Amino acid sequence: MRFVNNRAEDVNIAYIGGGSRGWAWAFMGDLALEESMSGTVRLYDTNFTAAKDNEIIGNRLLDHPGSRGKWVYKAVESIREALTGADFVVISILPGTLDAMALDVHEPERYGIRQPVGDTVGPGGIVRALRTIPIFAGFAEAIRKYCPEAWVMNYTNPMALCTRALYEVFPGIRAFGCCHEVFFTQKLLCEALREIMGIDGVTREEIKTNVLGINHFTWIDRAYYRNMDLMPVYKTFVDKHYEEGFEGNEKGHWINSVFGSANRVKFDLFRRYGVIAAAGDRHLSEFVPGDWYIASHEKWKFNLTPVSWRKKNQKDKIEKGKRLLSGEESFELRPSGEEGVRQMKALLGLDELFTNVNLPNRGQMEGVPLGSVVETNAHFSGDSVRPVMAGRLPDPVQNLVVRHIYNNETVLRAALNRDREMALRAFVNDPLVNLSLEDARALLDSMIRNTAKWLPGWEI
Amino acid sequence: MRFVNNRAEDVNIAYIGGGSRGWAWAFMGDLALEESMSGTVRLYDTNFTAAKDNEIIGNRLLDHPGSRGKWVYKAVESIREALTGADFVVISILPGTLDAMALDVHEPERYGIRQPVGDTVGPGGIVRALRTIPIFAGFAEAIRKYCPEAWVMNYTNPMALCTRALYEVFPGIRAFGCCHEVFFTQKLLCEALREIMGIDGVTREEIKTNVLGINHFTWIDRAYYRNMDLMPVYKTFVDKHYEEGFEGNEKGHWINSVFGSANRVKFDLFRRYGVIAAAGDRHLSEFVPGDWYIASHEKWKFNLTPVSWRKKNQKDKIEKGKRLLSGEESFELRPSGEEGVRQMKALLGLDELFTNVNLPNRGQMEGVPLGSVVETNAHFSGDSVRPVMAGRLPDPVQNLVVRHIYNNETVLRAALNRDREMALRAFVNDPLVNLSLEDARALLDSMIRNTAKWLPGWEI
Amino acid sequence: MRFVNNRAEDVNIAYIGGGSRGWAWAFMGDLALEESMSGTVRLYDTNFTAAKDNEIIGNRLLDHPGSRGKWVYKAVESIREALTGADFVVISILPGTLDAMALDVHEPERYGIRQPVGDTVGPGGIVRALRTIPIFAGFAEAIRKYCPEAWVMNYTNPMALCTRALYEVFPGIRAFGCCHEVFFTQKLLCEALREIMGIDGVTREEIKTNVLGINHFTWIDRAYYRNMDLMPVYKTFVDKHYEEGFEGNEKGHWINSVFGSANRVKFDLFRRYGVIAAAGDRHLSEFVPGDWYIASHEKWKFNLTPVSWRKKNQKDKIEKGKRLLSGEESFELRPSGEEGVRQMKALLGLDELFTNVNLPNRGQMEGVPLGSVVETNAHFSGDSVRPVMAGRLPDPVQNLVVRHIYNNETVLRAALNRDREMALRAFVNDPLVNLSLEDARALLDSMIRNTAKWLPGWEI
Amino acid sequence: MRFVNNRAEDVNIAYIGGGSRGWAWAFMGDLALEESMSGTVRLYDTNFTAAKDNEIIGNRLLDHPGSRGKWVYKAVESIREALTGADFVVISILPGTLDAMALDVHEPERYGIRQPVGDTVGPGGIVRALRTIPIFAGFAEAIRKYCPEAWVMNYTNPMALCTRALYEVFPGIRAFGCCHEVFFTQKLLCEALREIMGIDGVTREEIKTNVLGINHFTWIDRAYYRNMDLMPVYKTFVDKHYEEGFEGNEKGHWINSVFGSANRVKFDLFRRYGVIAAAGDRHLSEFVPGDWYIASHEKWKFNLTPVSWRKKNQKDKIEKGKRLLSGEESFELRPSGEEGVRQMKALLGLDELFTNVNLPNRGQMEGVPLGSVVETNAHFSGDSVRPVMAGRLPDPVQNLVVRHIYNNETVLRAALNRDREMALRAFVNDPLVNLSLEDARALLDSMIRNTAKWLPGWEI
């Protein structure tokens, strides 16, 4: 990497999961739209063909009229090739396959456990973590070996545990996890500002929030627009929409959307605890007992995302990939809404950025075990990410959060040691696992057995 | 108080709840059996007649042939009279009545929630705490006013919260909470030692255990007889008795005993977590989801104690009291197994004692919020109780415990502020409250309504 | 305060010490130069005439051609009037008089103790704190009463202790302390960047530093320009200039300047500890034993500032004030280099700012007592100042710093309780107080006696 | 090791420094006097002949009429032989020789630095630590290899750093450090009790003290006999003897004793800080600036121990050894006053013990860096040593102590990395090193050069 005329050139990015269709394309687009950087992106994927396709799609952007940053894409066959010399490492993988995910999400239904997402906590999240953590342990080893100074940006779920595993294996790693869920809540605050105060045209970046919690179960205890306290504004907004929910400008009614919701869970949590839950309702509902929201999700107006939908969506994207590859469809350049490229820019010292990320707790979240990965605001500047002191959650919310933090530590141990009994200790303590001890064991056993091929080293 | 010939004379004890029939008599007996102290016990009770009866029963001990410590008992009509000049304050009260307790324990059954005890956590424990904490707040104020330097020994449940309330209101108080549950586990270890190692005649005091957790959900992570590690001994013992349970020398089979158990819950928790749960099975089962043990308590071989039994028992004791009063029955002097008198002796500097007590966490339990009341070992000597560093619980157990610690803090807040919404935040997060949010609210509301007369200051 | 067209109007500022000639004028200038705010500044000073003069000088700025922010100045006779309705409170006072300061600084010379500044630590700093802390205790009480929600910006020394006293008396206060010393070090890094790397034109704001320590004894352990690590750059710079020092573009040779230095102390500390001391050499030298630098200050190329100079300077400013008042001299509008107005702008939500301030430690500085005031970076945004996790100093530097932190806590106690023995405990442990215990006591006694009139409530 | 009739037989003790004449004989005597244990002591020493002599002396005790515990002594030629199979490891060595110590203690005198002892802190203590820590690092490695479960008792100075080094290299070690200095202060409290209260015949074990600080700079903030608070008693005692000092029943006047003192330093520190300094005056005086006490040690009535005296004493002991060996002199059996054997007994589960020891801080001393070795009370029982929560020192005392704690950490780093600059960072911050930076460096350099032969691996 070198600076030429206030631009960073020859930036080296390793993209692990470089054959991805969703995240990779979004990232390519953001890179192309940012004029202050250029360089090379090495695409590594266990599916080399997919990476190769993305190489072609990516390089075609060089000729795109809207393309301001110039990037060369190159699919590589080994992680060593991807990482050597990297300034940045982006990790966005699907651990296992959607078949595995289907087992994570739907097997527990046999015991009456439904999961709107199933990739973070709950039976699905735990078993997904068991197969993902060893993969991330491998990434950490490789990064230590090939690019120990690189900045590592993780987009993979379960976010907290993937990031935690990187630090467990290579404590000196410079990694953080990124997620856009908080952004949507900031947008919701823009809606409240518009509707309650009549202030229009405010962007989510103008809403200043103090963020604390864990990924997908993140909370906001202070929100400001200028020096206007948004907590009472949000309260009025919640009171107004509590019964019917607020669907805002999301395309289509939540009923027809596997991702949509009417924010009723968010509103109810606000009423109960006085702080703003800052993730989608589908995610939030998974961190609390199933009887609270999931059991009556229609009433609470959110959907459970079937993995069949993900499979269909994957197929659509593969088709779209073919069209992009053949030139039949042209790449539409537009900001993805993700902050990865802005974070890179700040880490290169071209900008400053203050946003929420996932990092090991060093005290930024008071009263929470040190070392565990939490989500709070941080300050990004040249070669530096420093968490901001976020204070502490109200005790009743802390209690909901800490339960998952300790569970995460237990799952980490289980995954690294291939220890089924340890996994069970986390499993039975998950709020969604509302079972007798026998049933819990039986379910975990069958989930592990079902996904055995993605669990190398386990005695099954 | 003064020392004469290595004896402490004129010791002043205030007994709050001095009309009690169980604890007070046990305490009177222990006092009489200890030769190194004598003095006055002032009995204060909202039921003055009961205190007066105990005055007579107690003073009669002066003439008991086995009586070595000489104590004068005096029923007093105000707490001021009881406390003024006290060296020690003993608190052992029934908050509310058994009718209130019946509502605590049995009302939740309408929602399918069964409680073996119902006085610590769970719906019953929480509502009991709501009415007890303000009473203890009053005690703390009175102690600050009348005897700020006295040592205060609490025997009332919910133990952790009663003790916590004392410190919240009067941070300089010198209070601790006492409970005998750990002693029974030490006795169980004696049984294991006898049965597995063939070592007989060992007393529970010879079993050295490291204790940590919260009252009634206390754990032992190290147990030694001499320098013999008892963890593998206990493991063998548990393996041997896991299926059938161990009933030992307790009188009568557990089926006929509302307090008995076959220790199967204790054994199962040991198998799951590798550390020894150190309380009775009825208590332990209340700290975890009802589906784990309570739902199949016959299988796990323990009973739920109906409050009707407590009423019957109370009636029996009242009868016994009459007989003691009339002299029809004579007071049987024998050690109660409680440590209160030994603790007093140590605090007077006549002895040293190393035992488990309930104290605010100052770091003795690692990773647990400071200030919350925990149960660990402590060292008693002249005018001093100091907790011993107990280390930390394994993460999965810590998770089970911390949930109740935060819940306790939330209940404390709710009780002191008469805040129903705050109470609900703890209520819905209790492992036994396996309900929809609506049902949880409805249950709490009805429980508060039912016990309204013991909840002064609440808007009901 | 209200927003009109993206501008904050009717902002209310209370200026305590509003008769000041230096800070007040600088602040007036910065306010006038900032176009996004306007409002009223109420000037309160124990010297009402001086405040009145500044009212006239300030209001004249309304007509100044370069004036973009419109501010009305008003001298008020009571602190109540100043504070009521204030959005911001600025505190910049001289505690006592320069005569008092002369006694602080020069009395210790009788015992061979020389002090380059004498307002932070050392005998002078300690005695200054004894008379300043009660004044700040009064400010804290008044702020609690009249404007508890106002943001309070302190510029008075001893910075850490003044700010600490505000929080001690009113824990809910929203106060922070501001100092420009770090800025000069950032400018020095700009010089190093120019000289060693040939990169010119970089401003201090572009130098990103991690700041930690206490005011006037602040340290930088990371410094970046873009993504260039400045630590090796600074090392080369220090090696080059170590022997002769670096005087840079400061006007005049340090010999003729009571404030100037050749940065040799800074360079030597860097060599010894590997981290950058970020304050002027005169300040730094006071935090370590006098034998290190002060005893040979000519060799280390810095001067001791005699209070006679300050008196002369004060006289000059009074003269200048007269000329400004009469219109004989016109107010020169130019940025002061201070950040107060930018901080206000950020707190009003008109900007974001990331800079170093003095705040109670909540964990931003690891391993340092909580509550004590430390200087680290913080993030300013709408109604919010949050410290950034600054990590920890290397142990040997931590040791130098912690000594003053505990001493500060001791001085605080001494000042609030008028406790001479407590003051002595801090005094004898100050690195400059290299005396026998008798001499130390004699010196402290005489210093207290000398400044008795500014020590109300002390038994002298 | 095995239990037979409540006695521990076949106990295996490794004695490192087993050729010692003072400590080893005292230990042999205590072992012989204790009837509940017997076994083997393997004596390892770099001076094998000395160990061999002690083997003969020790085995002769088997026939001593007063000998109740039966121990076989065996000199061994390798540390491996000593450690393999050991239940306990005792370490009591002289690091280097008395010639090295003479250089530690007397070389600094050339710069006006006098040291009463010179083995803990100060220039002598620091340089002694530099040569001792690598030796202890070796011990830790060997213990990890040959007897990782053994209990390790260190008697070697610098106590805190030797113990710290063991834990640094082998974190799982079960080591603690023992020192008798606190015992003497407890005896002094017995004197106060006798003289002020007229209570005679109390032993030091009956004085209950709360101990906190670091070895040789330990403090007592609570002292009780029975339930009598001894702080006011001690205050009266100090007031009475402040001017003249108290020499009590120590043999001979302090003037003629290189170890004696009149406790005037102890009394003065009590007056200054309100807590009891609990070590000999010679030690205490080394932890504070030389101008406080050492510079006028005759006035403060304590002596500096010249190393020539130690050499003479060593010679006397060698002579005594010859006489013991030849049988010319018979071994006098009497309790040494050390607690090592009682500690072993407690660790074997034959007793309980509550006493002060040196252990890494896990929170027993509040506000002090975790991991650093501190001295507080601990509870000894079967296979267990647990520190008791000791609370925190008053800030001004904490400040004096913490300075040495950080210095210790710095010396540890310097010794393990053979890093002279790191050593200098601790050196210049020692209170006794009241020198210019040049002189400090010159002194350290010459001290390192002088003791070069005991500093393998250093670039000198």
CATH superfamily of the domain at 2-179 in chain A: AglA-like glucosidase
Provide a count of the helices of chain A: 15
CATH class label of the domain at 2-179 in chain A: Alpha Beta
Which parts of chain A are unreliable, with pLDDT below 50 for 5 consecutive residues or more?
none
Would you count the extended β strands of chain A for me? Answer: 14
Distance between the termini of chain A: 47 Å
Helix content of chain A: 40-55%
Largest interface: A-C, 34 and 34 residues
Our estimate of the beta-strand percent of chain A is 15-25%
Mean pLDDT of chain A: 95
Q: What is the makeup of the main sheet of chain A? A: 7 strands, mixed
* Helix-strand pattern of chain A: EEHEHEHEHHEHEHEEEHHEHHHEEEHHH
Radius of gyration of chain A: 21 Å
Concise overview:
Four copies of one chain form a homotetramer. The first copy, chain A, is an alpha/beta fold.
Compile the SSE list and pairings.
The structure is a homotetramer of 460-residue chains.
Chain A: E1 2-4, E2 7-16, H1 23-33, E3 37-44, H2 48-60, E4 71-76, H3 79-83, E5 88-91, H4 98-106, H5 122-146, E6 151-154, H6 159-169, E7 174-177, H7 181-197, E8 207-214, E9 217-225, E10 228-229, H8 230-241, H9 264-273, E11 276-277, H10 281-286, H11 307-326, H12 340-347, E12 353-360, E13 373-381, E14 384-387, H13 395-417, H14 420-427, H15 437-450
Parallel strand pairs in A: 2-3, 2-5, 3-4, 5-6, 6-7
Antiparallel strand pairs in A: 1-2, 8-9, 9-10, 9-11, 12-13, 13-14
Helix pairs in contact in A: 2-11, 4-5, 4-11, 5-6, 5-13, 6-13, 7-8, 8-9, 13-14, 14-15
